[in-house]
Amino acid sequence: MEPVEPVAWNGGEEGAGLVAEQGKVVVITGASSGVGRACARRFASRGWSVVLAARRTAELEEVAAACRKHRGARALVVPTDVTDAEAVEHLARRAVTAFGRIDVWVNNASVAAFGSLDEIPPAVFRRVLDVDVMGYAHGARAALGVMREQGDGTLINVSSVVGAAVVPYNIPYVISKAAVRALSGSLRQELRLAGQHGVHVCTVLPSTMDTPFFRSAANYSGRKVLPMAPVYTAERAARTVLRLTRRPRRETYVGPAGRLLGIQSKLAPGLVERLLARQMDRSHLSRKEPAAPTSGNVLRPLPEAAAVSGGWHGRRRTAVRRLAVATLAVGAVLATGRRARCGCGRR
Length: 347
Prior knowledge:
Blueprint: H1 18-21, E1 25-29, H2 34-45, E2 49-53, H3 57-67, E3 74-77, H4 85-99, E4 104-107, E5 113-114, H5 122-150, E6 153-158, H6 171-193, E7 199-206, E8 208-210, H7 213-216, E9 218-219, E10 223-225, E11 231-233, H8 234-246, E12 251-254, H9 256-267, H10 269-284, E13 285-290, H11 315-342
Helix pairs in contact: 2-3, 2-8, 4-5, 5-6, 9-10, 9-11
Domain Ketoreductase: 24-202
Protein name: SDR family oxidoreductase
Family: Belongs to the short-chain dehydrogenases/reductases (SDR) family.
């Protein structure tokens, strides 16, 4: 295999700890757009060597070119379908051959299908689970195989807030993100029992992200998919992922709304289910704009240009939405308190 040479620094970001991070290696799946693309740029800005995986080669090359502009950063493109276990093992081997090790592996590649259970075709339903669950399992197997030999490393599994607080009309994605949390927990137990204390497994639960995700998803609901407020930038998720490489944690949310929702779902699961069902029906699926059935990017990549942003984020609009979510949260907490005092709803 051809060596991957560093390029001359052409500007880039600097900050505390930059030198200490240079030379570290990260593998990112789903790196062509959205959160994965933002993570690649964030790691490269710190001087990391980035190994970029997704189905679309041209888009990965664009990301790699941007990453190489940063001081000390090197980039390797490895087109990969994460549902193929052998392809994912090949991805790990390419990373080790090029850079000698894998310090961090970010399982991020995900697809989704909107619609009720009886509306989503079985083949599309199955493909979502193959990408979002088996793809993560293949990635974990490949990454941890390398990290166990090294004696250190961090596997970061990108789940979702819906893995903690379920929503309707997106069942295969919700199932998969709950499964990702379970996968991470089981892996942590196995590593602890094996005495692999230098290898960490972290789970990230993003709130709604401003990425092309909602336009790219399969949709059989008959209604246009809109992001559920509040919306956070993909760069915010990338900063969270990078922080976990320095201080690994079991789980961490991206965005205060997601963290609050996770707490509420533990305190009042029934109430949160009802509130999220209503919010999903009223605001996540448009009542005004119809949408033709589409498999989106589930079965095959879309020809559209990849990007980090989906064009959903706006500071003023997000501030208003955050206020609305906070108001809803206070109402939920007060309702829970009243139930607890009067003993209502006990079974």
